[in-house]
Specification:
By secondary structure, this protein is mostly helical. The chain contains 56 helices and nine strands. It has a three-stranded mixed β-sheet, with no helix packed on it. Strands 4-7 form a two-stranded parallel sheet. The longest helix is centred in the middle third of the chain and has 20 residues, at 605-624. The chain starts with 10 loop residues before the first helix and ends in a 5-residue tail after the last helix. It is found in: Nucleus.
Length: 1244
């Protein structure tokens, strides 16, 4: 008896057992029978059960069986002892999803082996099949048991519907029976019919019926002809659409399909590559890969990219410089880029490397970008590149790359990201300039460095912006919105980077604090940021530092940059200074650092002195708010007590210094006594004070002002001028969203000229303040001082950079105004030009200039009456040829032009009051500015003045009262629509026009920077501010004179109405308001009409003329300005010829409808007749629309040939302002025009 196989036996053992069993030809111990479903078995249907299932009965089971449900519904019956026999029906067993295929019935007389083989599905049968399969095909790969059983099963066993085989694609034409029932090209999409599919089916059936009538040869011939006539692109599209619609996926390759030829790939020959190492010489180099082997060739000669005209992308080395052409390959600047022969990395390549997963590549790219940014800021690429680099980097997304790099946990990656962010945000030259100017007068007051503000919707709420939108508007705000402060705090607190990284982080925080008061407040509000800085970098006690080794660990040592950060935060706002004093005990740290000599602080020498200076500067900022003033007295007593004795010096070297020091001290003390004790001691001897001041002036000031040293200082002042050296200034890398102070000049890191000789500017500034004080006390010395100080005039007119220079420029005119001295005319011009240079925070300077200089009669009394009359006589000659404009009130002019000038001089006080009232909206800013100027510590809220570069006085400040009235007129008209203009409004407009007229006459260059369009726009406000304001005689006179000045040919030639207007969306919107006002209240006034006619000149945009002739055609009837009174030539309305077909149609309609006439609107009438005449007699037509319009106009003119306008259009010759209708007419048409009219079918 064969034994049962064990688990240790292999497949070969099983096959050997099977052969032994078959060769023995023993009877099987099992019997196969069919049984019914166990879940529905009864005694009456045992026969049916036997027919339904295969049952294998094992010998030895006499009265019982054990049934096991197999994969194919097989049940194994094993003969068991009697005690295990079934006495009832079999338990129910779950039916299987798989059913075996029925095989052929085997005859009863068939041998038992054949019967067994026919029904056996045991493992032995499967193994036999495997052996037979392997023997039949020795090369065939053996399949697993599961794979064989899966292959023997049909798709229906797995619930998959068997589809019919798809016929293969054939290249021969289809027969009618093979054509599908649905068209693949005509789908019915786009048909208007509701049943588009039915329409497509109908078209398809018609095509099929047409093909059925043709033979196969005819179909092929028609197919060839169709292919030849169709566009190849369209043909390919139709084929591809058919393939997409009926693409078959045959399971087996059809015999009718041809075998496609394999695509041949031509491998390059090894000999053609010219490689330094041939394939096969090295291990694993036997395969030729041309793309990879290309990099082993020699580099090509680089293209000359020395200038910015080649168009090649610029490349940089690791130092951020543009490399030379002869860079060796081993230096690492050549790589597998688009131009491998060129050394260096382009900006896109650096951006790619900065996002690399490899830390070395990422840090290398970030450090290179930092070097590029620093070199660009100092102007090193000014002559090499065609555009600034920093804006391009920001637009490329540098901010987001750096913010992503900061989140890395690697120390070197964080250091590289901080280094690049520092190079982008921080300008060390600006910081040095601000530190240098801090010791000057008002040096602590600096502008904020913020970007543009967010736009607001109508309800006042700001638009929600994404991070890229915020960065595009303001880089600092974008970084703050991306939690930069929280990340920097984490780096300082947890990562604890080295000293260089800590210094860069503190510089970045300083730049953020200089952005605005809001940004500085966010630094204080950031959790644990200020606490970390105070605990780690502004410590009270620290270990001695080894000064012989480099400073690498900043933790536990006081840092000057940390104290500077506290100073900048205090400068941003009074409340922030109070928080630092109360919560963080800032003054205890300040007193710790200044209480002893810097050399005894146990720090590096440079660090100790810088910490000492920064502590004093921070204390000065606190004192500007009135904080810690009581500590200053203690500090003074301590310092004077600790002052060492003066060493012995040869007195012959310093004997001359005692008298001026004594005089200076005496003058200062007397000034203090006069300022603070006068109210208490009323018996103060003022005469003695004046005598002492006079002695100081005569003994010290005047000799110094006449000395050669002062002349050298003046020359240094000239060398410190930014305007004089403006041509040497590089193209700035500063942007609107990341502004800078602009402290660089020249092609390298040369500081701004005002810092080249800082002592000159600071000393002359202090000297000017002293002279101003002395002049207020003793005005008798003023003439002598003014004569000497007049030498500063040519220099002051050129020097302007910082707030100190603005103060210096301001004090000189104020000083001469107070002294009542006879000065040069340049002082008033200097004051006028200074107004446009003042920025936010200088409101008190504007007030002082308005009060003492700008409208000062003594300043304006610089030209004698004879000169005024001579100049105005010449001016009158230019206007005498023109007829004066008639007013709607029919009042005659009462004042001559000379009388208008005298009237202006007599009303300078009223003019100044008008401008003061117009500037009343700046009252709050004026109070804050004056508080800073007068050191009113209780009123100072911040030392940040305003945005850099923003002028507080608009460029068109001379028209400021008109703008003020225009802005307030809407509310006034809504409340008092029927009331006349108040007298105060008339007075303000009159005073404004007086001043503009005076400035245009005396100093015409002052308003040259204001465009003519802006001047006209502001004069329009005089008509919009009130319904009858322009009818006042004085307002009418000044408006007419200004109109004559602005309508000179030279001015009209440069008039551009497409420029932007501050405060308005466009000139078109303003002009629409003017037309509405003209239709309502003009009364046909010639002055108002002349202003309306200016935008209707041919040189301006056609939309302005279409608005008048279309939407506001009612205004045409009121434009009764005579041609002889026009302030400009009538030819400006006639040339060039009109080409806009819509406007020509409006001209013709206005003539045909009698909307215009030569009697009540001569200028529009002449304009329409001229352009329509030119249009109808044009020999050529650009399009069919012009031809139709021309025919229609001629037909209408022929039908109305007895009308006056028809006669004028057909017989128009040329304009003539002196004639009755403003034009000359042909008595008889030229023959050319007669022939043309005959050709057009027009009979006159």
């Amino acid at each position: 008896m064969l034994k049962r196989p064990t688990a240790d036996e292999t497949e070969e053992d099983l096959l050997r057992y099977q052969e032994e069993f078959l060769s023995a030809k023993k009877a099987s111990g099992t019997k196969v029978s069919r049984v019914g479903d166990k879940r529905n078995v009864s005694e009456g249907n045992q026969a049916a059960v036997g027919r339904q299932r295969d049952v294998v009965s094992m010998g030895g089971a006499s009265d019982g069986t054990l049934q096991i449900d197999r994969l194919h519904n097989f049940v194994l019956h094993i003969d068991m002892p009697a005690q295990f026999a079934h006495t009832s029906t079999a338990p129910p067993v779950k039916k299987s999803r798989f059913k075996a295929e029925k095989k052929k019935d085997v005859p009863h007389d068939c041998p038992i082996e054949e019967s067994f083989e026919a029904h056996d599905s045991h493992i032995s049968k499967i193994l036999t099949d495997i052996v037979h399969g392997a023997q039949s095909d020795p090369k065939a790969k053996r399949k697993s048991l599961f794979a064989q059983q899966f292959a023997s099963s049909s798709p229906s066993d797995f619930g998959v519907t068997v589809r019919d085989k798809i016929p293969p694609i054939s290249t021969r034409p289809r027969r009618i029976a093979e054509i599908p029932s649905q068209q693949s090209i005509v789908s019915g999409v786009g048909l208007n019919s509701e049943n588009s599919q039915a329409e497509a089916k109908k078209i398809h059936d018609e095509n099929v019926s047409a093909l059925a009538q043709l033979s196969e040869e005819e179909i092929l011939e028609e197919q060839k002809r169709l292919f030849a006539s169709l566009d190849p692109g369209l043909l390919e599209f139709l084929k591809s659409k058919r393939k997409v619609t009926e693409m078959p996926k045959p399971m087996h390759k059809p015999e009718s399909m041809d075998e496609p030829e394999p695509m041949s790939v031509t491998e390059p020959k090894v000999q053609d590559l010219k490689l330094p190492v041939q394939p096969g010489e090295l291990v694993h180099m036997d395969k030729v890969e041309a793309d990879k082997l290309e990099w082993t060739k020699d580099l090509q000669e680089p293209v000359n990219v020395g200038d910015n005209k080649t168009g090649k992308p610029v490349r940089f080395d690791f130092e951020g410089c543009i490399p030379q052409q002869d860079v060796a390959v081993h230096e690492g600047l050549h790589h597998h880029g688009e131009e491998p022969e060129r050394a260096g990395y382009t900006l896109p390549e650096l951006f790619t490397l900065s996002r690399s997963a490899n830390m070395q590549q990422r840090t290398l790219a970030l450090n290179t970008l930092a070097c590029v940014l620093r070199n660009a800021r100092v102007g090193r690429f000014h002559e090499m590149l065609s555009a600034p680099i920093t804006p391009s980097l920001l637009e490329g997304g540098l901010i987001f790359i750096l913010r992503w790099a900061l989140d890395n946990s690697t120390e070197i990656s964080i250091a590289s990201a901080i280094n690049t962010l520092h190079a982008l945000l921080v300008c060390s030259q600006d910081e040095d300039a601000l530190d240098t100017a801090f010791q000057w007068h008002t040096g602590a007051e600096v502008p904020n460095l913020s970007g543009n503000e967010a736009e607001e919707v109508e309800d006042g709420e700001k638009i929600q912006e994404t991070d890229p939108e915020v960065v595009k508007r303001d880089v600092i705000k974008g970084l703050l919105s991306m939690s930069l402060l929280q990340r920097l705090r984490y780096i300082l607190e947890i990562n604890r980077p080295p000293a260089a990284v800590v210094g860069n982080i503190l510089d970045i925080l300083i730049r953020i604090a200089r952005h605005s008061s809001e940004a500085a407040y966010k630094i204080i509000q950031c959790p644990r940021l200020v606490d970390t800085i105070m605990e780690q970098f502004l410590v009270i006690s620290w270990l001695p530092t080894d000064t012989t080794v480099p400073f690498t660990n900043a933790y536990g040592s006081p840092l000057p940059r940390a104290m500077k950060l506290m100073r900048v935060i205090c400068s941003a706002g009074r409340n922030m200074a109070a928080i630092l004093l109360s919560k963080y005990k800032l003054f205890s740290r300040i007193s710790r650092y200044i209480a002893e000599d810097p050399s005894t602080l146990n720090l590096h020498e440079d660090e100790s002195h810088a910490l000492f200076i920064e502590s004093h500067r921070t204390w000065q900022v606190l004192l500007s708010y009135g904080f810690t003033a009581e500590k200053y007295r203690v500090y003074l007593r301590y310092n004077f007590r600790e002052t060492p004795a003066i060493p012995d010096l040869p007195w012959e070297q310093v004997s001359g210094i005692h008298p001026p020091i004594e005089l200076c001290v005496e003058a200062v003390l007397k000034h203090i006594q006069n300022s603070y004790i006068q109210k208490v001691n009323l018996e103060l001897n003022v005469i003695d004070l004046v005598t002492q001041v006079a002695r100081l002036t005569e003994a010290v000031l005047l000799p110094f002002l006449r000395s050669q040293a002062f002349q050298i200082l003046l020359q240094h002042m000239r060398d410190s001028s930014v305007i004089i050296h403006a041509e040497s200034s590089p193209r700035t890398e500063s942007m609107v969203n990341l502004p800078e102070m602009g402290s660089l000049c020249g092609p390298s890191s040369t500081p701004t000229p005002v810092l080249n000789h800082p002592g000159a500017v600071a000393f002359v500034l202090s000297l000017s303040r002293l002279i101003l004080v002395v002049g207020k006390i003793n005005k008798q010395v003023a003439p002598d001082v003014c004569v000497v100080m007049s030498l500063l005039i040519p220099i002051i007119r050129e020097v302007f950079h910082s707030c100190m220079e603005r103060l210096l420029t301001t004090w000189k005119p104020c000083m001469f105004a107070i002294f009542k001295a006879q000065v040069d005319v340049h002082y008033h011009k200097l004051s006028l030009s200074l107004l446009l240079r003042l920025s936010q925070g200088d409101e008190f300077i504007v007030h002082n200039l308005f009060s003492t200089v700008i409208f000062n009669p003594d300043m304006l009394n610089l030209v004698s009456n004879a000169e005024v009359q001579a100049a105005y006589f010449e001016h009158s000659l230019q206007l005498s040829e023109q007829e004066p404009l008639s007013s709607a009130t029919q009042k005659e002019r009462q004042l001559s032009r000379i009388q208008l000038i005298e009237d202006t001089r007599e009303n300078l006080a009223n003019i100044r009051a008008a401008y003061m009232q117009a500037a009343s909206g700046f009252l709050a800013q004026l109070i804050r500015s004056r508080s800073r100027a007068t050191s009113n510590v209780l009123q100072i809220e911040t030392l940040l003045t305003g945005k850099i570069g923003e002028s507080i006085v608009p460029i068109d400040w001379a028209f400021m009262p008109l703008v003020y009235l225009y802005n307030s007129s809407a509310e006034r008209n809504a409340m008092h629509a029927n009331e006349s203009v108040p007298a105060a409004t008339v007075s303000m407009v009159t005073n404004c026009l007086r001043w503009v007229h005076l400035v245009e006459f005396l100093n015409p260059g002052v308003l040259d920077s204001v465009s003519l369009m802006l001047k006209l726009s502001r004069l329009f406000c005089a008509f919009l501010a009130g319904s009858d304001l322009f009818l006042d005689s004085r307002v009418h006179h000044y408006l007419e004179i200004l109109l004559r000045i602005y309508c000179r040919p030279s001015n009209l030639d440069r008039l551009d109405l497409t420029l932007s207007i501050p405060g308005l969306a466009s000139f078109y919107d303003l002009y629409m308001q003017v037309l509405d006002q003209y239709e309502a209240v003009s009364f046909g006034d010639a002055l108002f009409g002349s202003f309306v006619l200016i935008p209707m000149m041919q040189k301006h945009n056609v939309s302005l003329r279409r608005a008048v002739w279309g939407e506001h055609s009612a205004a045409l009837r009121c434009l009764s300005v005579p041609i002889t009174q026009l302030p400009m030539s009538v030819d400006r309305f006639l040339a060039p010829h009109e080409e806009n077909i819509q406007l020509l149609r409006l001209y013709a309609q206005a003539l045909l409808s009698n909307t215009i006439s030569a009697l009540w609107c001569p200028v529009p009438y002449l304009t329409a007749v001229h352009h329509v005449n030119t249009f109808v007699y044009a020999q050529q037509n650009k399009n069919e629309e012009e031809r139709q319009l021309k025919s229609a106009v001629l037909a209408q003119m022929q039908a109305r040939k007895n009308q006056e306008y028809a006669h004028h259009v057909l017989y128009y010759k040329n304009p003539n302002p002196q004639s009755k209708y403003g034009m000359d007419l042909y008595e008889e048409l030229p023959q050319v025009r007669k022939n043309y009219l005959d050709k057009m079918g027009i009979k006159l």
